[in-house]
Structures are given as structure tokens and as C-alpha cells.
Amino acid sequence: MKLLHSDATERALYLVHGCVFVVWAAMVAVDPLHKLAVLPAAAFEPHGPLRFLPVEMYGFVLDASTLTAVRIGAVVCCVAAVLRPRALWAKLGACALLTTHQTIVRGFSVMNHAEIVALQAVYVFTAFALVERFTPGDRGQAASTGRASYPLVTLT
Amino acid sequence: MLFVFAGTAVVAQFGGTEHLTFPFVVWRMFPGGIGAEPIRYIELQGVRPSGEAVEMQGYLLFPSLHQNRYQNVLEKWTRRALLARQSGNTQHAETFEEIMQAIGRAHNKEFPEQRVDRLAVSEITLSISERTQKRERRELWTIERPF
Predict the structure, then answer these.
(1) Of B81, B97, B69, nearest in space to A107 by CA
(2) Is the four-CA dihedral A128, A130, A131, A133 of positive or negative sign?
């Protein structure tokens, strides 16, 4: 059995990788997340990782300046991930900040699966970049063994 | 890694609560027609000092929520507050009033030319099968200033 995109090249990987991070950067850049700060903290119901946040921290996390910082940080990480595809810190930062962004939006509204595929795509690219970083062998070997296709197969 | 991601996405469908499994959540796909007639939804209106009603477009005040999420959360807040009021639980009712006050303040700041001094939360009932667009409004909650 042959999986879809199993023969994808490193170039194809970078193209999809770039598209995902550009879309996220654009979406977050135009999203005035800080406006949610006017809503009372009682309206916020944390989901996912933010459930572990102490209630005393809500005031800080839901402050307009913190929300703006999350937004700017997420955009910077996404842009850096596009410009420097091998920069692991950018991908890890994008994972953390985009998850925070999406958790805050859902905390003030309802849980749904919109944007989830794009978010999970960021996780997939980051996870494979981590694996690649700690896997012995050079870049040429990765290309010849077809490892570049693994993230795309996972996304598919 | 492929199996980890695919497995997590599948397991999350049976996880029971998305609050725990986010960002791996249930994919709700509802093909088919609308089952419930008539349709009921919650609408938030502001009332200007002149008595003129203004539609409160919360999704413009909080663009991050988009229109769908804003409408859904307005429903959630209102239904929860109504239940709380019926059961004598003041906490959810107070939270609801607090949220509505915040929306009123945000509206007056964002649209000073359409300043409101009262908010009315109503349930709108309409039938789409009759194609009459006839809407019935039932006021559920009123929030007075200060915003």
C-alpha cells in the first residue's frame, strides 16, 4: 500500500509548512485579541492546558497587554518559522502561543473544531522538526530516505 | 509520530470532554436538514436614551469570537443565567449581568454615536419553513446602566 504524499519532496514540505505558518501569522496579526480583556474574568472558562493555570493568574493572563503580547509573540514566531524553517525555537514558540491564543478564544466562547487542523499542522511540523533535530544523520540523508514526506503523510 | 497524532485525534472523538482533550477535539459533522421548527435564538439589543432600539453586534466588539462563536456564547450565557435565576442560584445571574455590563461599556466606547443606556436580551422565534420571516420577540432579561 502506498500512502498519499509518501513520495513528497523536501521542497513540497517547505511549501506546505510555509503556507501553514503564513496563514497563522496573517490570522493572528489581524485579530484584536486584546478586546476580550474588557469581559470579566468570570466569563472565562479555561480549556486544555490553561485549565492548569491558578485562578489568581487569570487577571494577568487576560489583561489587554498580555493578550497583545501573546498575539505579537505568535506572529513573530510564525514569521520566523517561515523565514527560517530550521529554527526550532520559532516552531516551539508558535505551538505554545497559538495554543494559548486559541484556548483564550475558546475560553471566552465555545469549544468547536474550527482552526484545529491548522493548529495540529503546527504541532506536526514541530514534532517532526524535533525528531529531525535529534536523529543522527545529515540533511542529505534525510532527503534520500524520504523523511521529508513523513509530516505530510501525517497531516494527510 | 504518525500513529501518535492519528491515534490522539481518534481517541479524542471518544474522550467524553473536550475541556480535557483540547486541542484534540470532537469533529461534529451534522449533515441533513434542520430538525427543530420553529427556530429560536437569543438576540441582544441596546436601547438608546430616545427609546430607539440598536442591535448590539457583539462580534464587532469582539472580532476574535467571530459571529458564530459570539452567537453561541450569547446563547450559553443567557440559558445558563435563566436556569440560575429559576433555581435561585445568584452567582451565574450576577456573572451574566457583569458580562452584559461589559458588553454595554464596550459598545458605548466603540460606537459613541449609538450610545445605549439599557440592554435587552430577547428570545427570537421564527419559522423558516413558512418563509414569512415573521419574528416573535420575547424579552428575557433587562440590564440597566451604568455601563
Answers:
(1) B69
(2) positive
User: Which residue in B2, B23, B73 is closest to A109 by CB distance?
Assistant: B73
The span from the CA of B3 to the CA of B145, in Å, is 55
CB contact under 8 A, A105 and B69: yes
Task: Say what the pTM is.
Answer: 0.83
ipTM exceeds 0.90: no
In chain A, where the domains are located: 10-155
CB of A9 within 8 Å of a chain B CB? The answer is no
Q: Under an 8 A CB cutoff, do B64 and A116 touch?
A: no
Distance of CA B61 to the CA centre of its chain: 13
- Rounded Cα–Cα distance for residues B18 and A109 (Å): 14
pLDDT in tens, chain A (156 residues): 777 777 778 888 888 999 999 999 999 999 999 999 999 998 999 888 888 889 888 889 999 999 999 999 999 999 999 999 889 999 999 999 999 999 999 999 887 788 889 999 999 999 989 988 888 766 556 555 667 788 888 888
